[in-house]
Amino acid sequence: MGRSHLIISTGVTLSLLELANQEINLPIVAVVTISSLLPDIDEPNSLLVRRSIPPCILRILRILLIGVAVSVQILGSGFTPWNTIVSCMIGVVSFISARSMKNLVILLIGIALLLVGETHLWSGIAGSTLIVCSLAPHRGITHSIYGVIGWATILSLLPNTYSPSLWLGGGLSYLTHLLCDMITNHGIRPLPPFNIRFRLNLMGTGTLRGSVVEKICIGLTFILVWFAFLREINWNTLF
After folding, report:
1. Nearest to 129, CA basis, from 109, 102, 101, 144
2. Can you tell me the distance from the alpha carbon of 31 to that of 51, in angstroms, rounded to the nearest whole number?
3. Which positions ≥6 away from 77 have C-beta within 8 Å?
4. Residue 234: its pLDDT value, please?
5. What is the pLDDT of residues 89-103, one digit of tens each?
6. d(Cα 203, Cα 212) in Å, to the nearest integer?
7. Angle at CA 15, nearest 5°, toward 9 and 16?
8. Three-state DSSP class for 188?
C-alpha cells in the first residue's frame, strides 16, 4: 500500500490545507510527502525504507561485515578461541535476511545520529527515533496516537518554520496514513500497550476487494484534489 499511502495522504492533506487557506510551498509539500510514508519506517520492506536503503547499501554492508570477521580472526589470533567466536558471530550477521539487514542499517544510522546528538539536539532526537523504530514491531508505536503527536511536535519545534502549515500538514498526513491502515483487516492499535484495536476490515492487502477499495480511495482523493485546486479555474480561457 506504499504508493496508495503516498497518493491518498499527500493528496488529502494538501487539499485540506488549500481549503483551509493555509500556506503551501515546496518545504511543506516535501514534509507532507515524507509524512505520508513515515509511519511505515518500522517496516523494512516499506516504500520509504526501500527507497532510502537501496540493495547496493546492503551488499556493501555484508562485504564490510565479512571483512571485519576476517580481520578479527587474523588480528585477534592471540586471543584464541575468542577471536574465532567473535568472527563467527559477525560472519553469521553478514548472512541474515535482507529484511533484518535493513533493520540493522536503520539501527546503525540511529546509533550514529545519537552519538552526534550529544552536541546536536535534533540529531539525537532523530537517532533515538530510528533506534526505536528498528526495534519496534510493525504497526506498533509508529501507528499510534503517540506517533502522530510526536511527529507534529517535532515539526512545530523546528527552527525557522515557514508557517503552522508545516506541522499541521505533517501531522495530518501522518494521521491520514493511520486512517487508511484502520480500514484494513489488520487495523491499528492507537494507544499501545492498551490492547485497543481500530479495524474496519474493509480490505486485505493482495486481495481483489482490497484492490477495489484502494482504487476507490485513490479516486475519491483525486476528486478532492480537483475540488480544492482546480474547480475555480476557468477552463474556457485556457483553450
Report:
1. 109
2. 16
3. 83
4. 57
5. 988 988 888 878 888
6. 9
7. 90
8. strand
- Return the SS3 of 184: strand
Q: What are the cell numbers at 102? A: 535493513
User: Cα–Cα distance between 207 and 95 in angstroms, integer?
Assistant: 33
Tracing cell 508545516 back to the chain, one arrives at: 166
Instruction: Express as a percent the part of the chain with pLDDT over 70.
Output: 91
At residue 206, the pLDDT reads: 66
Length reported for the chain: 239
pLDDT band at residue 170 under the 50/70/90 scheme: very high
Give 33-45 as a DSSP string. HHHHHGGGGG-TT
Which pLDDT tens digit goes with each residue over 200-230? 877 766 677 778 888 999 999 999 999 998 8
Q: Are 41 and 33 in contact (CB under 8 A)?
A: no
Q: Cβ-count burial of 162 within 10 angstroms (0-12 exposed, 13-18 middle, 19+ buried)?
A: middle
Task: Give the burial class of 116: count Cβ atoms within 10 A of its Cβ; 0-12 exposed, 13-18 middle, 19 or more buried.
Answer: middle
Burial annotation 44-73 (CB, 10 A radius, 16+ → b, else e):
bebbbbeeebeeeeeeebbeebbebbeebb
Q: Do residues 217 and 177 lie in contact, with contact meaning Cβ atoms separated by under 8 Å?
A: no
E strand map for 14-82: none
Overall pTM > 0.85: no
Q: How many CA atoms lie within 13 A of 127 on its CB side?
A: 17
